[in-house]
Amino acid sequence: MSADSTQLQALALSNCHREPIHIIGNIQPFGALIATDRALEQITHVSANLASILGQTEWASADALGQALETVLPGQLIHNLRNVCGLSTIRSQRERLGIHELWGQRLEVAVHFNGAQTLIELEPLCSDQEYSNASVVNVKSILDQLPDSTAMLSLAVKELRNRTGFSRVMAYQFLQDGAGEVVAEARASDLEPYLGMRYPASDIPDQVRSLALKTTLRVIGDIHATPVPLLAWQETEKTPVDLTLTLLRGVSPVHLEYLTNMGVGASMNVAITIGGKLWGLFAFHHQQPKLISPDSRSTLDLFGQLFSLRFQQVLAEERFRDRRRAASTLDKIVTKQVPGSDWPATVTQAQPQLCKLLSAQGVAFASDRDLVSTHGEVPSETAIAALINHSQAQLESEIVTLESLRQINLPTVDSWGDSAGALLFALPSTQPFYLVFFRSETVKALRWGGNPEKKEVAYGEFGPRLRPRASFEEYTAMARGRCHSWSRRDLAVALEMRTELIRLAENRVQRFQQRQQNLLVAELNHRVRNILALIRSVTRQTHSSTDSIADYTQMLEQRIAALAAAHDLVAGHELEWPALSNLLAIELRPYLVDAQPRVRLIGPEVGFKANFVPTFVLVLHELASNAAKYGALSVPEGQLTVRWFETDGGVSFHWHESKGPSVEPPQRRGFGRDLIERAIPYEFEGDATLRFLSNGVEAEFWLPSELVRWQTEPDPEPVESPEPPSSEAPPQTHLGSVLVVEDNMLLVMDMENSLRKLGFEKIDAAPSVARALKCLDNNQYRVCVLDIDLKKETSFQIAQRLLEQQIPFTFTTGYDSKFSIPEELREAPLIKKPIEMAELEETLRQLIDL
User: Fold this and answer.
1) pTM, whole model, 2 decimals?
2) Distances from the Cα of 474 to the Cαs of 175, 194, 212, 509, 532, in angstroms?
3) Contact assessment for residue 614 and residue 675, using Cβ atoms and an 8 Å cutoff
4) Residues 825-845 pLDDT 10s
5) What are the residues whose beta carbons fall under 8 Å from the beta carbon of 242, sequence distance 6 or more?
């Protein structure tokens, strides 16, 4: 290949990676798009199919440009849109508003904010797209399995194909060199298998992978459908619209050509993320056009998140088992060394066994000055020193692996001898030491989906680009000059080896105790009440107590968040006995940092056993959630007292609510009540009692001695524990109390966060006129925020009372002009939804003369 051809291919590849697929300028035709300004007032862009999607023949889509949004959408829907756009998540995820009747059409409505515009998606709902809650149960059955990672992927693709009806579903893993490999597949019998096939990194460019992290589900309903262009209102509005989070986002012509060459008619991807990074994808292919319902897509998206969580845990357990086996072998190796020998001599004596442990043909032990010793087949001393120097920056923090030494250009190295690849890591001591393992060449046949070296260049809007391969027939290439790949197990063994040798260097006499302590975190990950089993139970039990996918998702996320907090407390701080006061702070912190705390914690310092913590935190979460929703913590005057003290060698724990709403036993038993009453007695041989008294909920637990460790001598007369420190910095100013009158709880929660940051010590909220007037009767407020529309009433009566009491206030509204504000109230400031933090702060500061 000529130098010019090589440069042209490099430029074409660079252009593919820079293709602006997020501002493509068109959408797929299975829905319509409306873009407005931030306040949802004026329409700036529409898709050319808007009129047809709405079933309108009397006006064209372009007629909506520049018009008020209310000319196209009804006022109630706009009000709902503004409420949703006030959520803090609107910038990072697409929010569904459900099904609405618009112009006689049943449409699924979704909205998000891209930083400059509000984007509204409208999707016609077919009669055969009705949602069945059984799909949640069916998909959850995949998560009920706990095999190894390979079997887990295989089961997932089979079940996903059964549930969705796609002709092919694959698990596609991204490899270290950027290429991808099909590691699991379920397909129709008449399709050729792709399992084990590799695809070059250019098939899924970097910007596509980046988008997959932001929009974890991507749908292409019909690759042959004609894209629908976006129409702009004015020249100034012709800046491309950022469609990153939009489900309807159009498809790159290059990708459409790629899918066409594969014989695909429709596709869908669900991201698999591990540790915040893209591990791979579930790729769905169908030979004909195919679009599943919005609810089914939401279920798949939720499945992807839950699968990623459990898959990450399975991989961590596999690494832990590999490290544990390696630790056992290393312990035997080290204990066989000559007693009294110094650390370098011990490493040198252990080299043959270390080499065998990593299936290497040679190993070199070097300091930063010279070569200490070698074993087996290794390159020259000059080559070893050059390799260490080349990898110096990475060696400070990680284990370095190289599968082809010939691919790195080191001017001082003429030959690597029989060595083809290397694994090396640093051993910090009084002076730096390094272990470098070498493997010989392994000739390996790699199966590719088409010839990865065959690249055709075409010219498009952005200059030369690579054309997708026309053939995806299996192509076998012999990989030479490379060693056998360093596996995940090899890295786990190397990590344990490095840890053990560093520990040996620091204190050889205490190496066994130190190794045990270092493995504690991994052991906790393995033991945290086997987090996978807990999540399986939570997902199954949560379904039985919810009636919709939205409730299911919300409740499941909260319970998993409680588990994650417990896991972070134990694993993140390497604690075997985390303190009870910290566990309580996880769930009760919002009520512990009030100016006048409504929660009292009374008891001596005591720690709970790590494997008991996740179950207990779930119990606390259910108690706290119930108290916040229905019990003492749901009203300002409510009180909660938590006491614990030594009894019969264990701990008695009492939860007592008072001054809250009247309590009655629930009509049906749910997962939360079962968890509170049964988990501790069943799993840990303790006692649990739950009582619904007229003056509040009471719960009592007794925990046996093996679950607790007293940090201080238990006192028969419990003393009040110090208040847990707040993680939030105190506000710079103290602005007193504020009353928020708003009927949307999510908006209230967001506004409370904003007001607390401004410096208000007490924030009361009321959803109705009656509740607001009661608050005014019982409390003094410095300022009030009133939503005009409160479902079936307005807040004008409250405003009249505030005028009489000379309390400043501001109105908020999601409507433009639904209500006529009385003459005497028109001097009050008016903030339109969605509410901006800066505007709210400025308005309130003016009202209270700051």
Assistant:
1) 0.60
2) 19, 9, 27, 57, 38
3) no
4) 988 999 887 777 788 888 888
5) 22, 23, 114, 115, 116, 117
